[in-house]
Amino acid sequence: MKRIRFLLVCLLTLLIVPIAFAEEQSPFKKLLNTKTIKCYLDKGAAADWEKGKLNIEITKYSKSEESSYITFGSIDIKNGKAKLIANVGSADVTVLATASGLSFIEETASGNLSFTTIFPAQEKNTEKFLFVQSRHIYGLFGATPIPQQYYGTCEILE
After folding, report:
1. 74: buried, middle or exposed (CB in 10 Å: 19+, 13-18, 0-12)?
2. Residue 19: alpha-carbon gap to chain centroid
3. Domain tally for the chain?
């Protein structure tokens, strides 16, 4: 009887531990538990309607690698708040956790909106998460829309 009980405990341990370990390592769970994540903006597209005609340009976010990073810190999913830290300063943003991952919404002082979604998917053979950022900008001086969308990867810092 003791031997059967011992074998059952061993069998259950062998079945449960890998499942718990796999769940602990899931990309989605990692995203939900992160407090700080740094994202590298790489290539993307920018558009404008200069002279009333749509113009789309495939572009790199920045020529300077130092200004190609944004960081989201103090991520508080429960209260829907986070802090965006970028090369031009910082701002309070809204954060939402959905089946698509973590989404951050920023409203700039001029009323423009930026949406960043970090997906629970990782770049092949890395711990880096895939993300997209869309910027909805309405030019103040030329009064023309300037939408932009950039893609890249993010690394959990904390």
Report:
1. middle
2. 26
3. 1
What domain range is 138 assigned to? 2-156
The CATH number of residue 19's host domain is: 2.40.128
**CA distance readout (Å), 4 to 1, 7, 45, 55:** 5, 5, 64, 73
Task: Check if the beta carbon of residue 73 is closer than 8 Å to that of residue 36.
Answer: yes
pTM flag (> 0.85): no
pLDDT by residue, tens only, the chain of 158 residues: 555 554 444 444 444 444 444 455 699 999 999 999 999 998 999 998 888 899 999 988 877 666 689 999 999 999 999 999 998 889 999 999 999 999 999 998 888 999 999 999 999 999 999 999 999 988 776 678 889 999 999 999 99
Gap between the Cα atoms of 123 and 81, Å rounded: 26
Q: Distance between terminal CA atoms of the chain?
A: 48
What is residue 67's DSSP assignment?
G
